[in-house]
Task: inverse folding
């Protein structure tokens, strides 16, 4: 699981774009407290704006998860 700061509309848009890029090959959950939303859900991700969230990609392919993690690090504001 990876940490991400949803501190702006731009950071939310970047996170959604990244999740959409990987949507066909893995699911990505965005978690804050007890709330879990799909990483591709605009309304879900926007509802978590202003919080640090946990990004949880689901895949058996460790290299794919590492690639996703590296790209997530690049978009952090």
Result:
């Amino acid at each position: 699981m990876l940490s991400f700061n949803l501190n702006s509309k731009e950071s939310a848009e970047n996170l959604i774009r990244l999740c959409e890029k990987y949507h066909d090959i893995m699911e990505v959950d965005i978690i804050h407290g007890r709330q879990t939303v799909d990483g591709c859900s605009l309304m879900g991700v926007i509802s978590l704006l202003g919080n640090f969230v946990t990004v949880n990609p689901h895949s058996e392919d460790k290299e794919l998860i590492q690639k996703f993690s590296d790209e997530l690090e690049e978009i952090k504001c």
Q: What stands out?
A: The chain has a mean pLDDT of 96. The beta strands are 2-6, 27-32, 35-38, 51-58. The first helix runs from residue 9 to 22. The domain at 2-75 is CATH 3.30.1340.10 (Histidine-containing Protein; Chain: A;).
